[in-house]
Each structure stands twice: as structure tokens, then as C-alpha cells.
């Protein structure tokens, strides 16, 4: 008896249950030139921060062509990572994702002096986008395990040249090695704090299904 009431009760219970367990969801774009280490970084982040995740051996990781997606639950929120391909023909697609994003991780290959200016130019183009205003920005000077790489002291001033484009958003340049995992947790934790602080500007994009 009371089938309709039961269904109303079930629906509201289901809604309440979902409200209690659902995590706020945020989208983080991983950008950078091809070969910078985007795919390797996403694997390292999943391995370090996802319980029960068995990482892929670095030799099995292939460079990003198109879209590579990962999900990590950390500090009570869910981060959906979108690792976009860095090849020049794919860079034109990046801005389609800017409006949806809550943070950017920009990866620099610190061993590649020949392409550092190219990387900086596309970085400047990215941060000039009106759709990214106020969005936290984590710049990773990757491949720090390679002895002759550029250190953060060398990379930072290059990417800070156009400080007026960075504006008031949270921005940090961090030395990491996606291959060894050094600096990966620190970077994600910093980003989570920034995303939480920035919810008034970019509220979470909660999904219907968890
Ligand atoms: P992408 O997704 O940005 O295109 P990948 O880049 O993650 O595919 O990495 C490109 C190459 O750089 C890979 O080498 C990968 O192992 C290497 N790499 C990524 N991060 C690091 C790092 O922190 N240290 C070192 N030493 N190498 C790194 P291969 O040889 O497979 O092309």
C-alpha cells in the first residue's frame, strides 16, 4: 500500500543519500607541448593518490594524442583530469575546454632548451584567454631527475616574464619528476587548496551520477 508515498520517500532518501556521498567535482586541464610528460604525470598522480590504482609501467605510456582522462578523489573532492594533446594541431582545441576548467597544470620539459621558447609562447597565449581569468595555475618544471636539466630557478623567470597576464590568480612553478613521482603529491595538494579557495569564482560541476 501507499506505493506513491513509498516512491516519494525513496526518491527523497535517494536524493539525500546522493547529497551526502556526492563529492564536489572539479576539472583540471593538463597542458604543455607534446613530449613534456603530461601522460606520465597523470599516471604518477593516479598511482600516488588513488587507492588501489596499479600504475602503468613508464615503458607502456605513449604520448597523448587526443584526450586522456583520469579521476582522483583527494581531500574530500573529486578531480577530473583532462590531459589534452600538445601537438600543434591539437593546441587549437584547448580553448574549447577553458570555460569548463577549475585549474590548469602546465607541464614544461626542463630538458628541452630548444623548445622552451615555443613552450613559453603557447603558455602566454593560454594565460591571455579571457576564459581562464582567475583560474589557478600550476607550472611544473618536469624531468628534474635528468642531471643536466634546467632547474626551477632557470624555468621560473622564463614563465614569469608576462606577469601582467598571470594577474592575481594563484600561480606556482614547481620542480617535479613525473617519472620518479617526486613533487607530484605536493603539486596536487597545492592545487586542491587553490581550487577550494576559488569556488566562489568557479563553483564545482557536480555530476548527476557519481
Ligand atoms: P606527453 O604526454 O606530454 O606527450 P609523455 O609526454 O608523458 O608521453 O612523456 C614523453 C617522454 O618523456 C616519455 O619518454 C616519458 O617517459 C618521458 N618523461 C616524462 N616525464 C619524465 C620525467 O619526469 N623524467 C624523465 N627522465 N623522463 C620523463 P619516451 O622515451 O617514452 O618518449
UniProtKB/TrEMBL annotation:
One of its GO terms (molecular function) is GTPase activity. Interacts with SYS1. It comes from Phaedon cochleariae. It holds the Pfam family Arf. Its main location: Golgi. PROSITE patterns: ARF. Trans-Golgi-associated GTPase that regulates protein sorting. Controls the targeting of ARL1 and its effector to the trans-Golgi. Required for the lipidation of chylomicrons in the intestine and required for VLDL lipidation in the liver. This is ADP-ribosylation factor-related protein 1. Keywords: Acetylation, Golgi apparatus, GTP-binding, Magnesium, Metal-binding, Nucleotide-binding. GTP binds at residues 32-39, 86, 142-145. Mg(2+) binds at residues 39, 64. One of its GO terms (biological process) is Golgi to plasma membrane protein transport. GO terms for cellular component: Golgi apparatus; membrane. The lineage of its organism: Eukaryota, Metazoa, Ecdysozoa, Arthropoda, Hexapoda. InterPro entries: P-loop_NTPase (IPR027417), Small_GTP-bd (IPR005225), Small_GTPase_ARF (IPR024156), Small_GTPase_ARF/SAR (IPR006689). The keyword Magnesium applies.
Amino acid at each position: 500500500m501507499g506505493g506513491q508515498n513509498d516512491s516519494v520517500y525513496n526518491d527523497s532518501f535517494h536524493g539525500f543519500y546522493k547529497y551526502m556521498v556526492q563529492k564536489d567535482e572539479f576539472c583540471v586541464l593538463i597542458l604543455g607541448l607534446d613530449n613534456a610528460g603530461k601522460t606520465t604525470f597523470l599516471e604518477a598522480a593516479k598511482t600516488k593518490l588513488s587507492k588501489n590504482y596499479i600504475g602503468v609501467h613508464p615503458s607502456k605510456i605513449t604520448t597523448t594524442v587526443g584526450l586522456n582522462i583520469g579521476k582522483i578523489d583527494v581531500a574530500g573532492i573529486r578531480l577530473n583530469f583532462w590531459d589534452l594533446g600538445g601537438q600543434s594541431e591539437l593546441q587549437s582545441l584547448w580553448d574549447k575546454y577553458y570555460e569548463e576548467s577549475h585549474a590548469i597544470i602546465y607541464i614544461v620539459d626542463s630538458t628541452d632548451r630548444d623548445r622552451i621558447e615555443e613552450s613559453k609562447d603557447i603558455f602566454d597565449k593560454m594565460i591571455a584567454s579571457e576564459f581562464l581569468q582567475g583560474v589557478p595555475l600550476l607550472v611544473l618544471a618536469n624531468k628534474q631527475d635528468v642531471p643536466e636539466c634546467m632547474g626551477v630557478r632557470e624555468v621560473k623567470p622564463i614563465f614569469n616574464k608576462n606577469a601582467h597576464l598571470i594577474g592575481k590568480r594563484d600561480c606556482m612553478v614547481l620542480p617535479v619528476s613525473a617519472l620518479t613521482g617526486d613533487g607530484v603529491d605536493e603539486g596536487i595538494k597545492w592545487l586542491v587548496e587553490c581550487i577550494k579557495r576559488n569556488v566562489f569564482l568557479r563553483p564545482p560541476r557536480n555530476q548527476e551520477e557519481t
